[in-house]
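Suppose a colleague, Dr. K., hands you the sequence of a protein chain of 70 amino acids and asks what its three-dimensional shape might be. Before reaching for any lab equipment, you can write down a predicted structure in token form. Begin with the sequence itself:
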Amino acid sequence: MKEDRFLTVKELCQYLKIPKPTLYMFLGKGLIPAAKVGRQWRFNRDSIDKWMADKEKYYAERKDRRVART
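The predicted structure, expressed as tokens, is then:
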């Protein structure tokens, strides 16, 4: 069976392996791509994967800059 394109809060927490309060903190600060449908949040799996890749790239570059300074 094909994976769902859109994830619920519970599914995204399992996907990212983070607790719900952390996800809601991200949502409150606008740090994670999401859409509200009625009273429920939905997350596009492709957008989440890109968001994670961007974060990985950011922290890798940040680490490279720290190493270059020493």
